[in-house]
Amino acid sequence: MPYFDAASSLPLHPVARQALAAALEDGWADPARPHREGRRARMLLDAARETAAEAVGCRPDELTFTTSGTRALHTGVAGALAGRRRAGRRLVVSAVEHSAVLHAAEAHREAGGEVTEIGVDRGGRVAPGDVAAALGDGAALVCVQSANHEVGTRQPVGEIAAACRAAGVPLLVDAAQSLAWGPVEDGWSLLAASAHKWGGPGGVGLLAVRKGVRFAPARPVDERESGRAPGFENIPAVVAAAASLRAVRQEADAEAARLSALVARIRARVPEVVPDTEVVGDPAHRLPHIVTFSCLYADGEALLHALDREGFAVSSGSSCTSSTLTPSHVLRAMGVLSEGNVRVSLPPGTAEEDVERFLAALPRAVASVRAALDVPPSPGTADPLLVDSLGKRCPIPVIELAKTLPRAPVGEVITVLSDDTAARLDIPAWCTMRGQEYLGASPNPDGPGTAYRVRRLS
Amino acid sequence: MPYFDAASSLPLHPVARQALAAALEDGWADPARPHREGRRARMLLDAARETAAEAVGCRPDELTFTTSGTRALHTGVAGALAGRRRAGRRLVVSAVEHSAVLHAAEAHREAGGEVTEIGVDRGGRVAPGDVAAALGDGAALVCVQSANHEVGTRQPVGEIAAACRAAGVPLLVDAAQSLAWGPVEDGWSLLAASAHKWGGPGGVGLLAVRKGVRFAPARPVDERESGRAPGFENIPAVVAAAASLRAVRQEADAEAARLSALVARIRARVPEVVPDTEVVGDPAHRLPHIVTFSCLYADGEALLHALDREGFAVSSGSSCTSSTLTPSHVLRAMGVLSEGNVRVSLPPGTAEEDVERFLAALPRAVASVRAALDVPPSPGTADPLLVDSLGKRCPIPVIELAKTLPRAPVGEVITVLSDDTAARLDIPAWCTMRGQEYLGASPNPDGPGTAYRVRRLS
């Protein structure tokens, strides 16, 4: 049964499995001990560091193994900010960073620091000029991912790095999604990644800090990993992580070409086989294996379950799949539809037949979810210029708008009342997709929630 | 070849190896995902938590998996202090805690908090009354280990817990060394442990926080492990850790009796077969598998290497084995000899013959090290009342004192000049062992270093 959630986590690569089994024999002792067992563990750790550093494109002594990609990002952001404290306290992050970066930014803000968020275009891409414009005024660190984890959009890291270098501000690149495919463009100051994204084991992250970058790790520290990652090193896992990174890199170019073609097929075919669907993410600057689309009038969580029943494991950024009931911050920053959102991320080796089977199953799954949501007209639909969707969750407000609009005269303005967070994103996105005019939102003058205004154009 | 450094790290238990292999198949996905692979991972994680909680003696929802015992301690100390911030900012720790606790205490001090250190007796044991006396005045948290990692001394955790409970101050118990042997006496508020100490994999720690204990984890956090351990869970390792904890517990009582008898044999025999040796650590309240002794006139690092050549992996708390050139803080707090220090910690299954072989090899190893250190008389020894050991490292100052003293008249006072950190510990300890009178230390009036005064009594 096909697993299409590679961007979340991958099963262990066969090379990682072999390396892990071997390193469990020789890598369990404390590498800080001078006895035979400790020396053997140290040798394995040193070799793994050299292998990983070569793949990253840095010196072994610039590379630290952390216990996760999240921890690498938390440590990297905090350490670089602390090291640059005298230069300033402003952290610049793109709006589509991984939550680990945004959590670190939030912690910085709570500690009295300042955070500047750089927006993205509708494809999810950061403009280097926007970063450059944010670099004065005590900017201490810039964080930009090499590629987005939800929509696959690649960022112009080289240009951003050049702007940072010109301003003398270090750049931290979250390379979690891209490192398997190749090294990050040159010019970064810090780099973070996560092994289970490339078929390494869980529990291993990488943090590279270029020589010369000021860095002051948060306390408490200990003597391990240059004081940047306290706690006993998990050497068997580190060895497996490094070995599998080298292995996936050897297959990367061929597999990228193959998966990229399969993703192109999904990008082209989904709007053909499923009506009212928007493929999101930059069509050109993208990772080979990730494709994301949103389906109007569909509940993302129900869609995940329907696809799971069809045998496909995928992910979703829809609000109904999150515990906070807010849509993915990535989709929000892009200003694209969030309802019925599906992320397909293909693991290496994905068979063409499985993609075809997915494209055959998807229309059934979406249709079943849409059929289940075929809600009766709400009381508000008696008036063709007012949709009262208060108390109803995504995708109901958009469904009710779509049902009501054809009954309004062309040129008239329809008001949608909603207290669902996703409506702020999905009503404008629906208007764009359907060629209607979105006029804006304001607090509901007669009660709770927000009033969205839409002019019927056609 | 016998590995006698179990207190540092153990090879993977066979049960852990089996559990790991099985969980690598089913536990690699993100347990937060609603698809089939995610649900399987979640089930493994939940089952591991139940198993570990049963061994700890807490509810599953009180238990968090961390990425190391060190991380469990750092998180536990910081979280409990932050949760009790209104009650006070004073942290009470025993002087013999693991460095992870002392590093956390140091971080607390640097952040403006207060730290009270509780001393120990010559056996390394904390007096519950000393803890009770430190509990007024804004005490926010007490940290006491269940048993010491360097000398094996067990602490009176039950009595300390009762004192803490009476004062309304939470108690964090570092159970890293003892959890394999049985649950910690009741009454603790937080408990930390480390899987590779019981034959689980590296990369897994436990942090239990009793319901009702105020706890505010340090930022940044994420949604994993109740917000107490950010980063992707390493489920295969967690499963292996829990399975091996249950397995070692089943063998614990029988193995504890067997190893304890072997340790008793080492405790009795070492002073018989190696002259001028002190066995340290409480003889009664001790872990079954750890025994530590110090050898006068021996360099700890050289001794480790000599034993390694004889095929025995052991550890040492001597200053010459540490990068800081200071003797172990544990030996210092106990006020015992630190030179020529050797910790023997027997892994489960240690054969009696290997212990006998060790007892046969030890005298050879110590003799070879002592012979190599048979330094020529220093210039200072021309005067039988002055030993000038400035610029010389442990154990030279004590060797020179021992050579000079027989030439001084009984009743006279000998002055030893030394700038070695270990001298402050080893000169008084030598006097105690040799029945000479230690009069004290003061700055050297004529130059650098310290002047130690010793009266020859016999």
**Largest interface: which pair?**
A-B, 63 and 62 residues
Gross morphology of chain A: globular
Percent of residues in β-strands of chain A: 15-25%
* N-to-C SSE string of chain A, H for helix and E for strand: HHEHEHEHEHEEEHEEHHEHEHEHEE
Distance between the termini of chain A: 44 Å
Structure write-up:
The structure is a homodimer of 458-residue chains. Chain A has 458 residues and is α/β, with parallel strands linked by helices. In chain A, 38% of the residues lie in helices and 16% in strands. The first copy, chain A, has helices at 14-26, 36-56, 69-83, 99-110, 128-133, 157-167, 235-273, 300-309, 329-334, 352-372, 396-404, 423-434, and strands at residues 63-66, 90-94, 114-118, 139-145, 171-174, 190-194, 205-209, 277-280, 290-295, 341-345, 386-388, 413-418, 437-443, 450-455. In chain A, the strands form 3 sheets. Chain A has a 7-stranded mixed sheet with strand order 1-7-6-5-4-2-3, sandwiched between helices. In chain A, a hairpin with a 6-residue loop joins β13 and β14 (450-455). The interface between A and B is large, with 63 and 62 residues.
Short description:
Chain A is an alpha/beta fold and 458 residues long.
Give the key terms.
homodimer, 458 residues, alpha/beta, seven-stranded mixed β-sheet, four-stranded mixed β-sheet, 12 helices, 16% strand
List the helices and strands and how they pair.
The structure is a homodimer of 458-residue chains.
Chain A: H1 14-26, H2 36-56, E1 63-66, H3 69-83, E2 90-94, H4 99-110, E3 114-118, H5 128-133, E4 139-145, H6 157-167, E5 171-174, E6 190-194, E7 205-209, H7 235-273, E8 277-280, E9 290-295, H8 300-309, H9 329-334, E10 341-345, H10 352-372, E11 386-388, H11 396-404, E12 413-418, H12 423-434, E13 437-443, E14 450-455
Parallel strand pairs in A: 2-3, 2-4, 4-5, 5-6, 11-12
Antiparallel strand pairs in A: 1-7, 6-7, 8-9, 9-10, 12-14, 13-14
